[in-house]
Amino acid sequence: MLISEAFAKFGAIQKNVQWSVSAVSESNELVVSLWNQFFEKRSKDTMTYIDKVSRWSGAGNNEFTAYLEKAFRDGLPVRAIIAKSKQPEVIAAGGAASNLGNTFHPKTDWIGEITEWDGDKFEIEFRLDK
User: Fold this and answer.
1) Which pLDDT value is given to residue 96?
2) How far is CA 111 from CA 43, 52, 69, in A?
């Protein structure tokens, strides 16, 4: 599935399909594309995404950071698109991801909240949306 199709599943439109990895949906939820390798299962009922915005410097980073700040400040729910790369080591090193054969899967049954945000490090805890 294309990343733009994954965003559309949540009623969200990227500002730029070449580099946007976040958007706010029609229902005022933050929709973010998140790398599968940075998820941890911390409890039976949740999955937690842990990362730093400083890990990468792609074109969408400023937009992503601004959306995280807004969602944290305003308490917006978060929806996840799971991104998976054939070259996770490039992702971990903060390299350019656009030509790595990535796949995108919208997790329409998950709802999340930002539980930590210090302007760099962030954690988003997801649970099943009942």
Assistant:
1) 72
2) 15, 20, 18
Report how many domains make up the chain.
1
| Pick from 55, 54, 53: nearest CA to 22 | 53
**pLDDT tens track for 17-47:** 889 999 999 999 999 999 999 999 988 999 9
Q: How far apart are CA 112 and CA 35, in angstroms?
A: 15
Q: Is 24 within 8 Å of 12 (Cβ atoms)?
A: yes
Contact assessment for residue 24 and residue 76, using Cβ atoms and an 8 Å cutoff = yes
SS3 label, residue 57: coil
Inform me whether the pLDDT recorded for 101 exceeds 90. Answer: no
Task: Give the structural domain span for 43.
Answer: 3-128
Q: What pTM was estimated for this model as a whole?
A: 0.92
Q: Report the C-alpha gap between 129 and 37 in whole angstroms.
A: 22
